[in-house]
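Figure caption, in words: inputs first, then the predicted bound structure.
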Amino acid sequence: MEIGVIGTGYVGLIQSVGLAELGHNVVGIEIDKEKIKNLNKGEATIYEDKLEELLKKNIGKNLIFSSDYKKLNNCGIIFICVGTPQSKEGKADLSYIFSAAKSIRNNLDENYKIVFIKSTVPVGTNRKVKDILRRKNIDVVSNPEFLREGNALFDFFNPDRIVLGFESEDKKTAKEKMLELYKNFDNKEIPFITTNWETAEIIKYTNNGFLATKISFINEIGNLCKKFGVDVYKVAEGIGSDKRIDKSFLNAGLGFGGSCFPKDVNALISIGKEVGEKPNLLEEVVKLNDRQPLKMLDLLRKKVPELKNKKIAVLGLAFKPETDDVRESRAIRLIEKLKDESAMIYASDPKAINSMKRMIPEGEKLTYLEDAQKAIDKSEIVLIVTEWPQFADLDYKDKLVMDGRNVIPKEKRKNLNYEGLCC
Ligand code: UGA
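Bound structure (uridine-5'-diphosphate-glucuronic acid present):
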């Protein structure tokens, strides 16, 4: 099938490469010319396992990237995958979505097309896009994505479900096309959830909102457990064995970051407030999440009251392992606080040093080191901020180790000057 994908960020790039790998002809549209140049050379613009390998395999054959919307004219199917960043008021900024819709309207021929919106968008957005397109022979379908960074290609090829929201639930053509699109998937059992636009839009936010709530919930229990000397990870194992609860997203620690959970929970709060239904629970989820890095510093101050000129290693800058993405990473909050207190920081991460340098440049009191062991050796205190598994194998010597992610195995802790955030 001939497919267009608008936007080459996380969602769009995975979608383009994934569909090309399934044998479809894909045109990826991007406005950033530098990005197009790199992608067409087979250079991935983000780090994701196997992404560059599959990009190189398909580029120039059945996959190209361009800034020319006219190239979408042959495509019966177009995916909008542009970003919906958080605006100042906490809402989703929809300007990229609307501008993509206008570009489709201004550049495309009159043939029948289906426009799938994969970007995370508030209730009513699919309807607005349909209004912008002003065409009868275009169907707009809400098709939220559930990819996790770091596992994005795996998730693309192994979706738990595919949600499709139609203008009215009887739009059969779009569903059939979607089934055809995924017919090469190995996993033939993928459940399709078909519904209307608004329900699909809410499903996406609720999904992220629920997972974020689960994290803040277990963090709250973790803070409580800490007071009683109870291991919250055992508690999580105990409750996670109940199928109704499930063990995933019960890893207590410094809280959630990334480009999705913080933005989407805030957007859901804004959506609720706009219609006079203030989501109190979600507001607490955000507050609790914002407090977790400060909890770690409070714990540290109990042991070392004065942090000025103290040499502190910060291990883990990415918002989670297996990515170079530092957006809303817990490390940002911690580094900024430590800088305010004039500590001497040695920061390390297997993948995210360059991304973090762009956000917080190196300086007199902040040094980035590729080698995490060196960061430890130079410091008196070590803060473990992201659960990269390799951090478990480092030699922490006699340093004070504050573990914000339950990284160090229990047997090893006995011989260390160790303090867990939640245990
Ligand atoms: C999340 C969702 O998991 C995806 O399904 C969704 O498609 C995506 O957002 C999106 O909306 O685009 P992602 O942001 O890549 O994916 O990361 P997650 O693996 O969900 O982790 C988010 C944050 O929660 C990370 O900072 C992680 O460290 C934290 N986390 C996760 C915990 O603190 N504890 C846990 O038990 C699990």
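DSSP finds 15 helices and 14 strands in the chain.
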